[in-house]
Amino acid sequence: MRAAVLGVTAAFVLGLAAPAQATFGPVLPSLSRNLVSYYDFEHPVRGNRALEQDRGRSGTPLHLINGGADMRVRDGVSSRTSLQLKQINPETVGNDDWKAGLYSETGVPTLRAFNGAREASILGWVKMTGQNPAPNSVTADPSDLYNAIGLAGVLTGDSNGHAVRALLELIQVDGELKLVALARRLDGGASQTFAAVEDWQKLLPQEQWVHLAATFDFDTGTMALYRNGKPLAGRYVTAGDPWQLEGEPEPDLATATDPRGYKIGGSYPQNTREGNACNCRMDSLMFLDRAAHPQEVELQYRWMR
Q1: For all residues of the chain together, what is the average pLDDT?
Q2: What CA–CA distance (Å, rounded) separates 275 from 99?
Q3: How large is the average pLDDT for residues 162-180?
Q4: What is the arithmetic mean of pLDDT over 53-65?
């Protein structure tokens, strides 16, 4: 089936043979050489099932936080299992939500591909499985909800567990929850947000697998969002030059620091608090150190179906 999906179109779009070391299963060959991390949630680390193997080139194990091995459920898209993320107790202040990620205050050396990166991409399957946005467990008001739904992101080199270098998430934009690509080029600097125009509940209907992608170009200042292989109409939220791209030197790159980790399904992967919990499942998460081309995003979606 994959050969039929790719065909002549793939040969034209990719223009490159797959590298000899590409053994990443359902990953488009042209993306494999830039595949920093790939998690299909059916490869636990031997001896510790609360860790997930990285099938990408960085070999960065992912921590399944609070739920451990029970977070792997038999409901995969391109794999047999997916990752269940959820809020456990919305009525109590705490840090017991099921999320995934890793965190190091000194940076994660295996994620050095994002150190001084010119581009990045995040791709993966998402399925909403409960109330979103989740109740804000920090306040006593049961009607108070989080103003974001955590999906997946690469942390900055000075992150507190929330600040991101590249992020795919749902956040409040002008009082409305929107699917966004959000990024900071510089540690401690301002972020830019590219927000999808369409209603997020139409983009992510309950109990339905959807393939999402976000791409980031730190040199040109462009971002893009995709749903099921197709680009989404959107707008940039912050006017001016939040990434400080004007002037020399060129090209413009992300800060030359190792990211402090990944956050998946919520903030604070060091598990010091709950934030922006997601009642959802994820499968086949991919983090790349370049911006995937639109044709590649579509082919990757079709390749994995």
Answers
A1: 92
A2: 10
A3: 98
A4: 98
pTM, two decimal places:
0.92
7 pLDDT exceeds 90? no
Which residues are paired to 126 by β-bridges?
210, 282
- pLDDT tens-digit profile of 103-124? 999 999 999 999 999 999 999 9
In the predicted model, what is the mean pLDDT of residues 185-196? 98
Q: Is residue 2 within 8 Å of 279, Cβ to Cβ?
A: no
Q: State how far the Cα of 46 lies from the Cα of 279, in Å rounded to an integer.
A: 28
> What are the b/e assignments for 107-129, b being 16+ CB within 10 Å?
bbebbbbbbebbbbbbbbbbbbb
Alpha-carbon distance 119 to 52, whole Å? 25
pLDDT value at residue 92: 80
- 3-state SS, 34-85, equals CEEEEECCCCEECCEEEEECCCCCCCCCEEEECCHHHHEECCCCCCCCEEEE
Which residues contact residue 231 at a Cβ distance below 8 angstroms, ignoring those fewer than 6 apart?
224, 225, 294, 297
User: Sign of the C-alpha dihedral, residues 283, 160, 154, 108?
Assistant: negative
CA distance 225 to 200: 12
Which residue do the tokens 């946005």 mark? Answer: 133
In angstroms, rounded to a whole number, what is the distance separating the alpha carbons of residues 271 and 123?
24
